Amino acid sequence: MDKDIPLEQAPPSYNDTQPVHPNLNQTQPLIMVQPQPMLTLPNVLGNFPSTATCPSCGVRSKTNVEIEPNTKTHLIALLICALGGICCCCIPYMTDSCQSANHTCSSCGEYVGTYKN
Ligand SMILES: [Zn+2]
């Protein structure tokens, strides 16, 4: 007689042994990781200490600037020397705008970039 009972009406006794916690999954917040675009602003360098992102340590801070002569400096010096005489050829070496500005990280000292005039 009992075998006439449909399976759906049978007490799900074995299901009670495995307690389902539907709230457990809901308590975990859906962490929607929005892909924030890294604000990697371009390093705008100049003759002066500029705000730049260090490629080594990632710190964005003011850079240290070292002015040093480049090929252009020597060429200008040569040109001035030819035109104005030997006494004027040191002018480009004293003018920052005629030289390269080497930017280094103020945090770790890593080379960041060079601004060429
Ligand atoms: Zn650095």
Automatic annotation (TrEMBL):
Subcellular localization, as worded in the UniProt entry: Endosome membrane; Late endosome membrane; Lysosome membrane
Keyword Translocase: no
Topology versus the membrane: Peripheral membrane protein
InterPro entries on file: LITAF, LITAF_fam
Coiled coil: none
Disordered as annotated region, ranges: 1-22
Transmembrane segments: 75-95
A Pfam family: zf-LITAF-like
Keyword tRNA-binding: no
Gene Ontology cellular-component terms listed: late endosome membrane; lysosomal membrane
UniProt keyword terms in alphabetical order: Membrane, Metal-binding, Transmembrane, Transmembrane helix, Zinc
Polar residues bias (residue ranges): 12-22
Gene Ontology molecular function terms on file: zinc ion binding
Residues in LITAF domain copies: 34-117
SMART domains the record matches: LITAF
Family statement drawn from the similarity comment of this UniProt entry: Belongs to the CDIP1/LITAF family.
UniProt-recorded name of the protein: LITAF domain-containing protein
Biological source species: Drosophila gunungcola
Lineage: Eukaryota, Metazoa, Ecdysozoa, Arthropoda, Hexapoda
